[in-house]
């Protein structure tokens, strides 16, 4: 299968006038992408969707390792975690909850960072970032934005190539800048924050190779 390839030219507005993404309501028997908070009650993980009061016990129906990953983050001092995942709700659960969430895919799990109130998430295709040196890239349908401490922001058009294995390349040679961002399915943990993501990331920029993690945004179709 040949990789898909298309060019995106428009850059304005890139990340302006964004609206906060609202997950679909927790409808029973519907597999949806959900974001919200995870807490512990004994040995049970409880999930509260963003902007809701209902609580659902978590079942790892997709063998995502969410219990192990959450335990690691709780062990490092977290009491409430932010989760971005896909799953199916049902009404069958232990007493004291509003049902059960069977998780089949885990996009992100974190103690800190962008959570329910991320204004860019609705339009994001992917967000990537890393440490030492610090860097971040946001990609949407109109362009990509590169941010680095002490450096001017770069807003560029890009070409994307998507491969059958789920990896993608976002590249640009506009405005005298040569850039390529590769993201690929992987268990990726930020070595400073402990945030777990489901994509690894490699950024080639100005002769440097910078590595980090990434996750898909709401506009990715995941």
Task: Explain how this protein is built.
The protein is mainly beta and 222 residues long. It folds into 2 domains: 31-110, OB fold (Dihydrolipoamide Acetyltransferase, E2P) (Beta Barrel), CATH 2.40.50; 121-220, no CATH class. It has 1 helix and 15 strands, in the order E-E-E-E-H-E-E-E-E-E-E-E-E-E-E-E. The chain has one helix spanning 66-75, and strands spanning 4-8, 31-41, 44-49, 56-59, 81-90, 100-110, 124-130, 135-140, 143-147, 154-156, 158-162, 168-172, 179-189, 196-205, 208-216. It has a 5-stranded mixed beta barrel. The longest helix has 10 residues, at 66-75. The chain is elongated, with a radius of gyration of 18 Å. The model is unreliable at 1-12 (pLDDT under 50).
Rounded average pLDDT: 87
User: Helix and strand string, N-terminal first?
Assistant: EEEEHEEEEEEEEEEE
Tally the structural domains.
2
Unreliable stretches covering 5 or more consecutive residues: 1-12
End-to-end separation: 21 Å
Helix content: under 10%
* Helix count, DSSP H or I runs of 4 or more residues: 1
Strand order, largest beta sheet: 2-3-4-6-5
Please outline the major beta sheet.
5 strands, mixed, barrel
Radius of gyration: 18 Å
How would you sum up the global shape? elongated
- The total count of strands amounts to 15
Protein name: Lipoprotein
Organism: Pseudomonas schmalbachii
